[in-house]
Amino acid sequence: MKYKLTASIGAIAAALTGVAQAQVDTITVTAQKREENVQDVPIAVSAFDGQSLQERAVTSVAGLANITPNVSLDAGTPFSGDPAVISAYIRGIGANDFAFNIDPGVGVYLDGVYLARSIGANQDLLDVERIEVLKGPQGTLFGRNTIGGAISIVTHTPGDEFSFTGDVTTGSFELLQVRGTVDIPLSDSLKSSVSFSLKDRRGYVKRMPYPGFENYNVEPIQSMRAAIYGNEGDYEGGTDAKNARVKLLYDDGGPFRATLSGDYSYSKQSQLANKVIATNGLVFAGTYNCAIEGIQPPAGDMSCGGGPPPIAYAGGIGGLNWVADNPAIFGVNVDADPYNDRLPYDDRFVTDDIDTTYATGNNVARLENYGVHLSLDFDVTENATLKFISAYRHLDWDVGMDLDGSPLNFLHTSFTTDQWQFSQEVQLTGSALDDRINYVFGGYYFVEEGDLHDFVTFAEGLLQVDGPNYLKTKNYAGFGQIDFNVTDWLGLSVGGRYTHEKKQFEGAQSDRNGLNYKIAQQFGDPDCAVLVPTISEACRIAQGFPVPGDPLRYYIAGIQEKSFNNFSPKVSVQVKPADGIMVYGSYSEGYRTGGWTTRLSNPLPTAPDFDEENATSWEVGYKSTLFDNRVLLNIAAFTTKYEGIQLNFQQGVSPTVQNAGDARIKGLEVETVFAPGNGFSVNASVGLIDAEYIDVLGPAQVAANPLQGGIFPGADLPKTPDFKFNVSPRFEFDPGNGATVVLLADYTHTSSMWNDTERTFLLERPSTDILNLSASYQEPNGRWNITVGGTNITDERYLTTGQAQIAGGQIYGTYSRPAEWYARLGVNF
C-alpha cells in the first residue's frame, strides 16, 4: 500500500497578528452557504486570508498547491500554452485538460459564481479576502463537476471609509507588478471599491537560433493553419497581464442588501514555457526523416519509421487550404539542388540546458475574460434570508505554441475559444427552534455555449489538423441541507442535490493535408488515383470519411446530444464532547458529466463519447482548538470509491478522453497550528493517501513498456503524490520603535508523482523540496511596509506538466520556475 503525507498548515488558521498574541485566529467561511467558524464546519476545509497569502507570496490559485493538504494545482496543462489554464486535483480527483468538451473535476468559484472552464480558472488573486478549499465531493451544495472538491475565492468587500491599499513589486526576470484597492463610500448606504493590478515579467526559457539553420529550407509558420500567429519575444513563460474589479454594495441596515460587481482581465504574453525532453524516429518523425533522404519503401511496406510511407510527402505538404499548397519534400536532401535541403527531426534539438530551446514558431497566449455578478439578499423574516445570485461571464482565448523545440514546423498547436455562460441561483437560508435547526434550500440554472477550434501541424504538415467544435450545456438543479442540533453535543446533517443536464455538441475536425488519401493513392487504391483538384466521392467512401461532399472531415455531421440526471446526497453526524472539540463522520457523493472526444486523427462513423464519473466518499474528522486556543489540531480520514474515471489517453497522435475504470482512494490529513506566544507560531501538517486503480477497462489498459509504467489494476492515479509535508514557522516582533517585523519560512516536501495518465518515465515528477523565505517591516503607524523574499530558494526544478507525443516524434514538458527573489513596497491610508 502506498501513502501520502500531506501538509500545509497555514491552510486553516490566519497568520498571527499581535506581537504578544498567544492564540490562533480562525477564519469565517461560507462552505455551507452560511457564515460559520471554519472549526464548526464538519468538512475538511483549508482557508486562507489575504494577509497569509501575501506573506507566502501566493499570487494565483495554482500557488495554493504547496500549502494545502491533498491538493495538486499546476499552471497549465499539456499543449494548452497558457498558465491561466489550471490543472486541479483534490484527493486524487481532477482533470488535466483545457478542452471545451472536458469538464473540470474541481470546481472553482469566484464570489459564489462557478467558472465553467479551466481556461482562466488559474485566477490572479487580486483583492482577495479569503480562499476556501473544500475537500472531497461537494455535489450537494456546489453541484456537478465538484467531484474532487471546490475552491471558493471571496474578494474584498467595500469598506465604510475611504481607504487605499496598494503595493509595487519588483524581482527576478524583470518583474514589475503594481496592485491597488481603493474603497470609496458614495453615501451612508452605498459603498464602492475599485481594484486593479498590472503584472509584467520576462519568461525564463530562452529561444536560441539553431546553429547553421540558415543553410536549410523551411516553410514559414504562416503557411500552416493556426488560430493566431505571433511571437511575444525571445523568451517563453513570461507574463503580461492586467486585471480590474469594481464593486458596489448597497446596505442601509434594513432587510434588503445588494452587491453588484464586474471584473475584467486581459493578457497577451508568451506561451507556457516548453522544453523538448527527447525525440524518437518513430512514425511521423521517422517518416519525415526518411522522406527528405528519398527513402521510398515498396508499396505496402510500412517499415520506414513504422508509419505512413514517405511518398505521402511527394504531393505537397499540407498548408492553409488544400493538400498541395506547399512544395513536395521527398528526396530534397539527395537531389541536385543544394538550396532546398531540410533538417531532420531528431535529438539535435534537445539542448543541454532546461531553460533553452531552438523553437521559432508561434509564441503567444491571449486571454480576455470578464464577468458581471449581481447578488440580492432579502431578510424575509428575522431568521430567514432569501438570496438571488445572477451572473454572466465571457472568455475569448487564442494561443499559439511551438512544442517541437526546433525551427521546423513539426509540432505546433494553436487554439481559439469563445465561451459565454449565465447562471441564476436562489438560496433560502435560515434557522428555527432557537437555532437548533439551520437550513439551506435552493435552485440553480446554468447555461453555457461556445466553441473551441483546434489547429495542429504535425511533421511539416504531413498531418494538418483543423478542428472546429461547438458545444452547449443547460443545467437545472434543486438542492437542500438541514442541520439539526439534537442536543448541545450531538448534531445531524442531511442534504441532497438533484441535477438534470443536457449537452449538445458538433465536431468537424479534419485534415487539410488529406494524409489518408495520399496513403491510399500510394497503395494503389483505384478510387483514389487522382486527388487534385478534387477528391472523388468514391475515394471518400472507400476511406471511411463520413460526410458527403466534405472528404477531409473525420467527424459525422449534425448535432450530438446527451442528457444526464444525478442525485448527490450527503449525511453527517457531529459530536461535541467538550468546548472547542468536534468529532464528525460523513457520507457524500459527487459526479462529473460525460461528453465527447473531439481530437480525431482518423474518420469514424459515430461521434466517440464518454460517460459520467461518480465518487462515493466516507470521511471521519476531528477538529479542535486546545490549551486556551494556543493549539489548533484537525484530523480527517477518508475513503473514496471513484468510478468511471475520465482520463486523457494518447491514441496515435490524438489525445483522447475515455472512461478508464474504477479506483479506491484512502487517506489521512493532520493539520496543526501551534502559537506559544511572544509572536512565534508554527504551522505544520502530515497526511497519508493511497490512490490506485482497482479495475481498468480493457481499452484503457496500457501495458508497461520501456517508455511508460502503464495503466492497470494497482497502478497509481496521475497528479497524486504519495507523500507531502509542509512546515511554516513565523516570528513577529517589535524591533523597539513600535514597528512590526515578520520573518517567515515555508518548506514543502512532496514525493514523486506521475504527470500523465500513461505514467511516462521521462515525465515523472521527482520528489521535491521547496523552500520560500520572506522578511517584512511595517512602520509604526502602518502607513507603509516593505517585504523582501525568495521563492524556490534551493532552485528545485521539476516538470509540472507534459505529454508523450510518441507518434508525433517527441516527449516535451514544462519545468517549474527557478529560484526567484522579490521586493515589495506596500502603502495603506
Q: Mind explaining what this structure looks like?
A:
This protein has 829 residues and is mainly beta. It folds into 2 domains: 9-281 and 350-514 and 552-828, Maltoporin, Chain A; 282-345, no CATH class. The protein is built from 4 helices and 45 strands. A hairpin with a 5-residue loop joins β41 (768-778) and β42 (784-791). It is globular and about 90 Å long. This is TonB-dependent receptor. Residues 1-22 form the signal peptide. Its main location: membrane.
Ends apart, CA distance between termini: 55 Å
Estimate nothing, just give the exact number of structural domains: 2
Instruction: Name the structural class.
Output: mainly beta
Q: How many E-type strands?
A: 45
Query: Strand portion, in percent?
Result: over 45%
The appropriate CATH architecture of the largest domain is: Beta Barrel
Rg, alpha carbons = 28 Å
Name given to the CATH homologous superfamily of the largest domain: TonB-dependent receptor, beta-barrel domain
Membrane topology: Multi-pass membrane protein
Domain TonB-dependent receptor plug: 38-150
Family: Belongs to the TonB-dependent receptor family.
Domain TonB-dependent receptor-like beta-barrel: 330-793
Topology:
Blueprint (H helix, E strand, L loop, with lengths): L12 E2 L10 E2 L1 E2 L6 E2 L7 E5 H6 L15 E5 L10 E5 L2 E3 L10 E5 L2 E3 L12 E8 L13 E7 L7 E9 L3 E11 L4 E12 L3 E3 L27 E2 L2 E13 L4 E14 L5 E5 L3 H10 L63 E2 L5 E19 L2 E19 L8 E22 L4 E22 L4 E23 L4 E18 L2 E2 L3 H8 L14 H6 L17 E19 L2 E12 L2 E2 L12 E2 L2 E14 L4 E13 L2 E6 L2 E6 L1 E17 L2 E17 L27 E10 L6 E11 L17 E11 L5 E8 L7 E7 L4 E6 L4 E9 L1
Parallel strand pairs: 9-12, 16-21
Antiparallel strand pairs: 1-2, 3-4, 5-11, 6-7, 7-8, 9-10, 11-12, 13-14, 13-45, 14-15, 15-18, 16-17, 18-19, 19-22, 20-44, 22-23, 23-24, 24-25, 25-26, 26-27, 26-28, 27-29, 29-30, 30-33, 31-32, 33-34, 34-37, 35-36, 37-38, 38-39, 39-40, 40-41, 41-42, 42-45, 43-44
